Queue: 2 jobs
Job 1
Amino acid sequence: MKKVTTLSMAVLLALTVVPAMAQKTASQGIDEYRAMLQDGNPAELFEAKGEDLWKKARGPKNASLEKCDLGKGPGVVKGVFVELPRYFADTQRMQDLEDRLVTCMEKLQGFNAAEIAKTPFGRGEMANVTALATWIAAESKGQKFNLSQAHPQEKTFYEVGKRLFFQRGGPHDFSCASCHGEEGKRIRLQDLPILTKNPGDGVGFAAWPAYRVSNGQMWSMQLRLNDCYRQQRFPYPGFASDATIALSTYLGVNAKGAASVAPAIKR
Amino acid sequence: MKNKTPLILASLSAALVAVGCASGPSVAELNALTDKIVKASFRDQGIAKADRVLATDETNRACSEADVAGKPLDEKAAKAIEAANMKTIKWPSDGKFIGDWKQGEAIAQSGRGLTWTDTATTVNGGNCYNCHQMDKKEISYGTIGPSLYNYGKIRGVSNPDDPASKAIVEYTWGKIWNAKAYNACSNMPRAGHMGILNESQVRHIVGLLLDPKSPVNQ
C-alpha cells in the first residue's frame, strides 16, 4: 500500500515536472518520468495475489491449480510463459497463458470456462486469471522467448497471425502494422515497438502483463490486444478467440530471443 | 467459439491430404482459414460492428495481401486503386476550400471517435497530431507520417485564393478526403471517404495547413 502511495506521488510530481522541462528537452523530462516509474511496480501486488490463487483450494471442486499443465508438465510454472502460445494435445488446440489457465480452472476447480470468458476484464474470475497470469509471467523473468513451431497448428497459427497483423480494416483502414510495422516510430510521444521482428529485451510482447499507471490497472496480454483493437476502431475480439491466439503466436515467435521483463510498468 | 478451431483445422488437414500436399497449407488455404477465424472471433460492440472487418473494400484487401507478401503492389494494380479512390472524392459543395484554422487545430488535436467506447454522437477528431508534426509549439506529435510544419509555406502558398495555388489547394483537400487516391496503400486514413470527418471539418483542416496565418505556416 505504501509503495502505491509513493508511486502516485512520483507520478504527480512527474506530471508537474514534465511541462516545466519542455523548454529544455521534452524527451529528457519524459525519460525521467519513466525512470521514476521504475521505482516501484504495483504489479507485485498482483503477483502475490496470483501465487496465492494458484495454491489455494477454490471453486466447486475445492481444488488448487497446482496440477495445472501449462506446457511443461503438471505444476511446472517456471519457464512456461516464454513458450506460450503453444499447441496442447489434451484440448487439441492452440492456447495462450490466459486461455490455458481458464482450461485448468474448469477442469481442476470446476469453474465454467465460458462464463469466465464472458466476464469483463478486471472483474470476478477474470481478474483472478489476470493475477495468475501476472505471477506466472513473473516466474520467467529474464528468460528469453522461444515459442515452438514444431506442431503443424503452431505453424498455421503463425501464418494466420501474420495475416491478422497486416489486416487493414475499420473506418480508419488501420492494421497492427500501421503503428508497429516500422522501426523508430511513435504516436504522439509514445514510442511504438516494431513487432515484425524481435524489438529487443522487455519490449513489446516481452513486456506484458504490465501495470498501467495512467488508469491504475493490471493489463494482461489479452487486454493489451483488446485495447489495441479498440483503438484500431475494429469490432470486439472475443477473449481468447482464435484471432487473439493467432496474433499472439505471430508476435511471440517474432520475439524469439527477447528477454521477458513481464510484469512491466507502463505510463 | 472454442470448438471451432479443431474443426476448421481438421477440414483443412483433410483438404491437404486430398491434394497430397506435404509442405503445409497453401496461401489460398491460409487466407480462407484467416477469414473463418476473423468471422468467429470478432463481434459487434456498441458502434463498432463486425462488418468493419468482414466487409473491407478492395483497397484494404489488396494492400493487406501485399503487406503479408512483403512486396508492394505492382504499378498497374496501384494505379487502378488510386483511380477508384480518386472517383470518391467529394469536392467542396460551395467551392470554398479554406476553413478556419483555429477550428482545424482543434480537430487535428482530437483523436476521438468511432471506437466501441465512443457513441454515435461523439464528434470525431482528425487524429492528425498522432502521426504528424504540425504547429511547432505542440511538442506531442507522432512520427508515422511526415512533418507538416510549414506545409503551405514550403509549397509557396502565400494566398490560397490565388489561381497559382489551385493545384496544391485541391491536392490538400483530396489527400485529406481520400489519401489512397494519391498513394494506394498509404497508412493515412481516408477521412472524408470513410465518414471520419465531414466536409466542414475537412475545410478547417485544409485551412490549418494552407492559411498563411495558421501556426503551421509560422
Note: Strands of chain A lie at 86-88, 93-95, 185-187, 190-192, 210-212, 217-219, 236-237, 264-266.
Job 2
Amino acid sequence: MDISQMEKLSETAWQIPASGAMRVPAIIYGGESLVRDMDEKVSEQLRNVAALPGIVRAAYAMPDAHWGYGFPVGGVAAFDADEGGVISAGGVGFDVSCGVRAHLTQLTRDRIMSVQAKHADALYREIPAGLGSHSTITLGEAEMTAMLLGGARWAIERGYGRPEDLERIEEDGCMPGADPAEVSDQARKRQSREMGTLGSGNHYLEVQEVAEIFDHAAASAFGLKKGECILSIHCGSRGLGHQIGTEFMREMAIAAEAGGWTLPDRELAYAPIKSDLGRRYLGAMRCAINCALANREIIGHLARRVFAQLFMHAELPLLFDVSHNTCKIEPHLAGGRTCQLYVHRKGATRAFGPGHPGVPEPLKPFGQPVLIGGSMGTASYVLAGTAESEARAFSSACHGAGRQMSRHQALKNWSGRQIVDELSGRGIIVKSPSQRGVAEEAPGAYKDVGAVIDATEAAGLAKKVAKLAPMICIKG
Amino acid sequence: MDAKPESPGSLRATHFSHDADIGVRGIGPTLEAAFEQAALAMTAVMTDPANIELKEAVQIECDAPNAEFLLVDWLNAIIFEMATRDMIFGDFKVGIDGHRLHGIATGEAISVERHNPAVEIKGATLTELTVVEDRPGEWRAQCVVDV
C-alpha cells in the first residue's frame, strides 16, 4: 500500500484525510511495514466506507486488515441512525458472528502430552469438522426458532453447556432484538443439521499451552497460568449465517442498483438503519449471532465431554467467548456526546476497556478478554481491552494474522502431509479430514501474527496478556 | 486449474487469486456454457471434478434482474443444494431465457474419503463479479467465492 498520501499520526496509526466523497477520514493501524504490505484494496475499501451516509468519526482498519467484501476484513465503522446512518451486510460478512471462545482446562502441558494422541483422536471423533460432516442434533421448526431467539442460553437450557458460561459470553449469550420471522426457509434448512459443527477453512478447535505471560495481574484474573492449557474454538454461524449474509447482500445490492445509487463497490451496498430492509437485516443478522453463540456453546460442551473422559474433574470453565463479525448498537463518544451507534466490526474483535459494563464483573478492572486466533503452527494470543481503545476505534482490536498468500500458492508450496509431519516434529498434532485443506491453511500462508499483535498493543487497541502455543489442532 | 492458451470460446474452468478467498471463472462460446464452466470451477475449489460420479441430477431454477446477479444466484443455489443434500456435483447444464435460468447439476453423495474436500464454500460473492462476452463467441462468467 502506498503510504505517501497518508498522514502519520503515530508509529502505528496512519490517516487518509477526508477528500472527495469521504465524509470522515480513514485511519489504518499498524507499523509501517505491516501497512506497506497491505493490499492497496484495503485503503480503497476503507475510503469507500468513509463515504457512507451517517458514518461517525472515522473508518478504521486493524493491523491485520486485508481485502474484503465492500468493507475490508479488519474494518470498523460506526453509524448514527439519527443522522441517516446505514447498515451493510458486507460490513458484517458472510460468516456472521464468527468468533473465538477459550476454556481454561486447568491442566498442565505434561498431563495433556501424556495422552496427546488419544486426546486428539477423541476430539477429532466427537467434534464434527469439515465439508459433509453433520451434527447429531437435528433442529425442527420450533426448536430452530427457539435457538435463533435464545443463542447460548437455548443451548444451555437443552443441556449443551453450563449456566455459569453465560456471564463469560458477550451479550450474556443471547443477542437481543433477533427476529426469526426474517430468517428464510433456506437459511433454516441449511442449519438444521449443523448445530455444534466447526465448518472448514480457517476454523479450528485447538488445545494450546500458555507459553508466555505479559500481564501477570490480568492473566491471574483471567485464570491464565504459564504451562497450563487452554481449549480454543474458532467458528461461526455456519450455514445459517452464510445464507443470511448471501440473501441480504443480494437484496441490498439489487436495491442500490434499482435506486440508481452509484456504489464504487457493489458489496458496499447498504440499507438505511431506519428502513424496512435495514430493520429486516438487523433482525435476521441478530438471529445469526445467536446461532453462532449457540454453536460455539455446543462445541464447548462436546469438548468438555471428551476432556471429562480423559481427565477426572476437568471442568473447563469458560474464560470468554467473543465474535469478530458483527454489527451491534453500543454507546460511544462522538462529537462530544455519547450516542447509540451501530458499530460494524468485520474481522475485528470488540475490546471493551476496564470498567465497561459489558465486561464480566471479576474481569472488570482488567478489560474484556480479546481472543486472537493463530493458524495451526502459529501462536494465538489473549489480549485485554484498554481504556484508550474507545477513542482509537470504538473499542475494537484485530482478529487474527490475516492471509499473506493465496490458497493456490499455498497448495503449490506445501502438501498437507508435509505440514502435518512438520508440525508433528514440533509436538503439535493436526487432525483434519482434508490434507488439501491443511495445505491451504499452512501456517506459512499467514502473516506473522506476532507483528500484528505488537502493532495492536502499540496502537492502544488492546494490550497483551498471554501467548498461547498450539499442541492439538482439529481443522475442518 | 490455471488457464492455458486456448482457441476463442473453448471451454475453460479456471481460478483466480483473491486475498483470503478464491475466484472462479468459466469461459465458453455461449453465456450458458460460461455459467456451466464457472460452476465446474467452483467444484474444483473443493475437489477434482473428475472424481465425481454422475449418479443423481438436481434441478435448479433462478431468476435475477441481470446476468451478473443470475450467475451469483446460480452458484449460490448450487452451494445450497450441496449443503442440504450432502452432494457434490461434477457436471452442469444451463439454459437461460432472459433473466431466468434453468439448470441441472449432476453428481453424487459427498464422500470425505474419496473426494477429500479441501474446504466448504460459504457463498458466491459480488466481488470481481463479471459476465461479459470478451470477444465474439467467448463468454466469461466469474466471481469470488467465500471459503
Note: Chain B has a mean pLDDT of 92.
